[in-house]
Amino acid sequence: MRGINKKNMINFLHQETETVVSFRLEGKIIAEDIDKIADILEEKFKSEESVNLYIEIDNDLEEFFGGILEQAKKGFTVILPNLGKIKKAALVSDKNWLRKITDFKDIFFTMEMKGFPSSEKGEAFDWVKS
User: Fold this and answer.
1) What residues make up the domain containing 43?
2) Would residue 82 count as lying in a domain?
3) Bigger pLDDT: 66 vs 4
4) How far apart are CA 56 and CA 20, in angstroms?
5) Burial class of residue 99, CB neighbours in 10 A (0-12, 13-18, 19+)
6) Closest CA to 129 of 3, 7, 17
7) CATH number assigned to the domain comprising residue 47
8) H-run or E-run covering 45
9) 129, 52 in Cβ contact below 8 A?
10) 79-91 pLDDT, tens per residue?
11) CB of 63 within 8 A of CB of 30?
């Protein structure tokens, strides 16, 4: 797919679920995308006792982390003080090594975290909302 200009994109999914923030990242993730996630999480943290995350990643890790680094301050000021409110996180990706990151979550997080291949999106969402 080299040479194809992918759009910046974040799509929020499953909006009917009050305690799950779910989104799909694709293309090049930019600072404004991270702002959108932080804003939605901030509202959920105010209104919900706990929040679960469902994240589909369909992009290069370099692009993903580039967006996070651009907006790390905003994300840290919203997420870190409320980290204890995140109970579960499902990471859906066909990149096996990216899903394996969830194996090391105990080093950094107290939440339950699990990786799923994209063929198991339904199972991942059912797991995170249970």
Assistant:
1) 8-124
2) yes
3) 66
4) 13
5) middle
6) 17
7) 3.30.750
8) helix 31-47
9) yes
10) 778 888 889 999 9
11) no
For the chain, what's the residue count? 130
Q: What is the pTM of this model?
A: 0.76
pLDDT tens, residue by residue, 3-18 = 444 555 778 887 777 8
Q: How far apart, in whole angstroms, are the C-alpha atoms of residue 23 and residue 115?
A: 15
Residue 116 domain-assigned (yes or no)? yes
Helix (H, G, I), strand (E, B) or coil at 60: coil
Distance CA 41, CA 35 (A): 10
Q: Distance between CA 99 and CA 101 in Å, rounded?
A: 5
Does residue 2 lie in a domain region?
A: no
pLDDT at site 106? 60
Residue 3 lies in a domain: no
Total structural domains in the chain? 1
